Amino acid sequence: MMKTFDEIFENAENIITGIAAAPGLVIAKAYKFIKEELEVNGQKITNIKQALTDLDEAITRSKKELNKILNLARDIMGDKRAIIFEAQMMILDDPILLGTIKRRIEYEKMLPEFIVNDEISKYQKLMFQAHEAYMSERAHDIEDIKNRIIRNLQNKRWKSKIIQDVIVVSKTLTPADTILFSKSNTKGFVIDHGGLTSHAAIISRSLNIPAVVGTHNSTLLINDGDELVVDGFHGCILVNPTKRQCNFFNIKIKHLKKLQKSLEELKDKKAETTDGKIIELLANVDVTGEIDIAKTSGAQGIGLYRSEQIFAEMGDLASEEEQTKIYSKLASRMYPQMVTIRALDIGGDKFNFSGISEPNPFLGLRGIRLLLANESLFKSQIRAVLRASKNKNVQFMLPMISSLEEVRKSKRLIDECKKELKKAKEKFDNNIKIGIMVEVPSTALLAKEFADEVDFLSIGTNDLIQYLVAVDRGNDLVSDLYREFHPAVLKTLKIIIDGAKISNKNVSLCGEMAADTLAIPLLIGLGLETLSISPSTITYVKKIIRSISYLKSKKLADECLTFTTSQEITSRIEKFFVDNSIKRTRNII
Ligand code: PEP
Ligand code: MG
Questions:
Q1: Judging by beta carbons within 10 Å of its beta carbon (0-12, 13-18, 19+), is residue 588 exposed, middle or buried?
Q2: How many Cβ atoms are within 10 Å of 368's Cβ, its own excluded?
């Protein structure tokens, strides 16, 4: 009998845990990447002219290096992701910053690296003070460009080319390091700092390199050349694994390869139950790179485009023109399939552009609330979405709706924007469908009334569960209370689905619950006919759908609705899988 994941890790002393940043499994040797600390001293200089020439040369060399990285990044990640490096390039071209540095060298007569360090550090301090994950990640990016100039002033070189297959272990990794390593023989990343939004995490996800970040002290616990297992599905690393652990993972890797091959064959097949019910599978898209994965995985459209990602990646508010370009490109790449663009869901734990700090951000100025309080921001997005809708394959979705007034106000603004565009003779889809996310309990309870007001509902279980059971979705301390199979969650899903159906409107589910293979029979049995999930999970879910019967799933859902504890529901679903000999594909991993 194959051991379970928990059995193999129970009491293991060689395990390091972190955040599962990019999925995949790999076994290889550790390559510890330690950047030489650059020392800068405030030494006085006499030859100012030479110092200014040195600075110019260092800037030119830095630009050359960065240009190479920028081109590489564009090749492997597409233009939008490469924006990080364009932003760094802009710093190298910033006349105000360079002017200040040069003036200070002349007046203070200090080594240029000292002034560069001091001046750029000032920017970073401001960013770190923002106390926000996104801003501090960007402050790290600036660290990269600062160190690049200093290193070039000191005529030093960094090594980021590797000959053997290795797992790079590092305290932090700049976007440039991540790109350069990924072009060499890097099979995995283990990084002490950073979270899911760190560039190392984002880039490794785009490039399909397994990564675990936020490990705190892996650089202390791992030696160069140690054998490592990196499990990017569960966020853990085994250092010098035992024979038993190695066997366990080698079997898993084999299973994974086989599974990936068998899933590829499903790509062009329908997601159809054994008794003929067809389920529509759409993709959730967070980053541009995922559009390609969505297309190759057989998604039938985009059910959730998280537009806030554009702003998060740019680190700024995108203009109407910039947004129009991005949405139009997205719509034409997916045409004739539908693309559901969600209005900016900022605030909460997401990208906070306003800098306002709130005591309870999840209950604060988030999503539609923030948009209605910033009409010009909202209207510029509405106009951009409308302009991208001219081929009639775009729909617009409102996040964090908790009252009908919010829907009505939003619809009024959409009408205003339509009038403005008509006046400007811009083309758009006058019948563009408007939908809402159902992720707040008040909206769930009034699902029918909301459905009467809009064209479609999409259930966001990630938030719905947190608001329903009062458990912060990102808080480790209470994560065991965040239960998707809570009886109240099931009852609420039923109210929403039935409400939409009475109103004759489409209802889909776009939260992570739809990617949990255990939840699939339940969701289908509750009556959902459309699921939107992350593209990499589409084929896994399709495989389950193709092995279940709708009628049996309906019976299962009806029975689960009578239970009063999550435990009973989970056990019943597990029994359903065993009774019907269905393999939970994702659990093989
Ligand atoms: C959700 O809440 O389920 C959802 C899909 O939205 P997000 O995860 O972006 O909050
Ligand atoms: Mg949500």
A1: middle
A2: 25
Tokens at residue 460, please? 């966001």
pLDDT surpasses 80 at 371: yes
Q: How far apart are the first and last CA of the chain?
A: 16
Dmax (CA) for the chain in angstroms is 86
Q: 407, 436 in Cβ contact below 8 A?
A: yes
> Is the pLDDT assigned to residue 446 strictly greater than 90?
yes
CATH number of 5-35+160-258: 3.50.30.10
What was the pLDDT predicted at 423? 97
Cα–Cα distance list, 202 to 205, 313, 438 (Å): 5, 10, 28
Give the pLDDT mean for 306-317: 74
Angstrom distance (rounded) from CA 318 to CA 175: 22
Share of residues in the chain with pLDDT > 70 (%): 88
CA distance 95 to 59: 12
Q: Give residue 85's Cα distance to chain centre.
A: 19
Residues ≥6 apart with Cβ < 8 Å to 187: 26, 28, 165, 166, 167, 209, 210
- Answer yes or no: is pLDDT of 267 > 90: no
Partners of residue 238 on adjacent β-strands: 15, 229
Pocket test for ligand 1, best of 439, 512, 531 (most atoms within 8 A of CB): 439
- Please tell me the residue having the least CA distance from ligand 1 atom 1: 460
Rounded to the nearest whole angstrom, what is the distance from the C-alpha of residue 470 to the centroid of ligand 1? 16
Average pLDDT over residues 562-584: 93
CA angle, 213 then 160 then 292, to 5°: 60
Q: What tokens does 319 get?
A: 């203009």
Residue 278 has pLDDT above 80, yes or no: yes
Mean pLDDT across the stretch 581-586? 71
Q: Where are the domains of the chain?
A: 5-35+160-258, 48-153, 271-552
Beta carbons within 10 angstroms of residue 47's beta carbon: 10
48-153 topology per CATH: Enzyme I; Chain A, domain 2 (1.10.274)
Considering only 98-112, 273-287, 462-476, which range has the smallest mean pLDDT? 462-476
Q: Whole-angstrom Cα distance, residue 341 to residue 397?
A: 6
Pocket test for ligand 1, best of 345, 532, 533, 537 (most atoms within 8 A of CB): 345
CB contact set of 118 (below 8 Å; sequence gap of 6+): 104
* Low-confidence winner among 47-56, 71-80, 558-567 (lowest mean pLDDT): 71-80
- Nearest bound ligand to CA 306? 1
What pLDDT, on a 0 to 100 scale, did the predictor assign at position 286?
72
- Nearest atom in ligand 1 to the alpha carbon of residue 513 is 3
Tens-digit pLDDT profile for residues 120-144: 888 778 776 665 556 666 777 788 7
| Dist CA 147 CA 506 (whole Å) | 53
**What is the spatial distance between Cα 514 and Cα 524, in angstroms, rounded to a whole number?**
10
Measured in Å, residue 506 CA sits from the centre of ligand 1 at 18
Q: Residue 216 pLDDT more than 80?
A: yes
Tell me which CATH code domain 271-552 carries: 3.20.20.60
Please give the distance, rounded to the nearest whole angstrom, from the Cα atom of residue 419 to the centre of ligand 1: 31
Q: Do 513 and 262 contact (CB within 8 A), yes or no?
A: no
Ligand 1: which residue has its CA nearest to atom 6? 460
Please state, in angstroms and rounded to a whole number, the distance separating the CA atoms of residues 568 and 204: 38
